[in-house]
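Interim report, section 4.2 (structural modelling).
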Amino acid sequence: MIYVYAISEPPVPAPALRRRGLGGATLRTLARDGLVAVYSRHRSLHPHPQPDLVLHHERVVEAIMATGVVLPLRFGTQLAGEDRLGDLLAARHDELTRSLERVRGRTELGVRVMTMRSFPGGEAGESTGRDYLLGRVRRHRRHEEAVRDVHAALGALSAASCIRPPGTAPAILVAAYLVDDGRVAEFRRQADQLAGRPPGTRLMVTGPWPPYSFATEQR
Amino acid sequence: MTERAVVLPTEREVSLVEVLDRALGAGVVLTGDVTISLADVDLVYLSLRVLVGSVGTIGSGSDVVDTDALSLGRGEP
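Predicted structure of the assembly:
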């Protein structure tokens, strides 16, 4: 049984493979027609998504990212063996090659805008239920506009962008941006300028991430 | 009407959420026969609370982060 971490292009520099895979397994590569998969062999493996295993997967992917272009695989990819992996690399060759080209020389950054005020809370002067409800609508609209502005401004500096489902309760924007390496500093400066718009929100930039959000062709 | 303050997660906690969210919900799906059940994904967010608690990024007393805020993608109120 094998577990697969990422797709890259051969040769994968040795430093990226010095790290150990899940369960301390040796990292191996399988090259096929200009693509290479990084994987490890396991007698038995049950990659349940515990945070430490997911973070381990992430560190392997980041080690590859540090040395070259990478397409991160979703956590949990286990296959019967190298033959199956080789078949999949061949079958998906064109699509994976295009994806590698799309992310080459680019970095994924995450942006999260959070409100420091929970929605049910009212503002000063909202003494009646009606005032409160109107205020709530106003705040919601203000947030929507702010999020649109932030996403447009950061999207303009990016090669691609996507809005991700906002799961965290106070987040009003969760987005990912694929940014040319040469524009990352500019992107961060722009994000700093947008921070705090509107008042009562906080903007966080995270990353650089392996390009998980742009690893597959977007519909 | 009083305003409820929301204690925001720290950058480290946000980064953890961002990692889990990406590695479990994005990235290349090489083959359709690899699936992680929703129940499993729920579990990881549950255990994240334990992890976040153990890395010592949470303050004590009233500064405790609202861990509900970390259950990304789940149970949005």
